[in-house]
């Protein structure tokens, strides 16, 4: 497991900056995860985000999509999500309030008949 820097290892002068870095975006994503079975967090022009959305649409699986900029815009917002989730790439896909990974992991779960993720059930 990847170690995380402990709260006690962050100097008090920067603690608030670290803990509130684009917290509104993290809150927005958290609320979407709580209110929807499947959430895709992505960005413009990313082919894997497009593939994930298309895959779910073709499978008849409902999802909520949140988009934060492109390769050259809103990178701070995306960085806050990477820091929060520990997942370094987009899309970030959440199923039943659990981060399952990105497009490749979604493909693997859809092919796995033993996957116990109810929100990946076709509508």
From TrEMBL:
Q: Which InterPro entries match?
A: Glutaredoxin, Thioredoxin-like_sf
Pfam families, sorted: Glutaredoxin (PF00462)
Xref: Gene3D superfamilies: Glutaredoxin (3.40.30.10)
Superkingdom of this protein's organism: Bacteria
- Species whose genome carries this gene: Loktanella salsilacus
Name the record gives this protein: Glutaredoxin
Q: Where is the Glutaredoxin domain?
A: 39-100
């Amino acid at each position: 497991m990847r170690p995380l820097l402990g709260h006690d290892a962050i100097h008090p002068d920067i603690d608030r900056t670290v803990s509130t870095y684009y917290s509104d975006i993290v809150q927005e994503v958290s609320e979407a995860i709580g209110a929807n079975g499947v959430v895709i967090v992505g960005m413009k022009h990313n082919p894997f985000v497009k593939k994930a959305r298309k895959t779910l649409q073709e499978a008849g699986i409902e999802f909520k999509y949140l988009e934060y900029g492109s390769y050259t815009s809103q990178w701070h917002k995306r960085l806050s999500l990477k820091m929060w989730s520990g997942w370094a790439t987009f899309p970030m896909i959440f199923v039943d309030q659990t981060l399952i990974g990105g497009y490749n992991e979604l493909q693997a779960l859809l092919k796995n008949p033993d996957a116990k993720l109810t929100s990946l059930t076709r509508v």
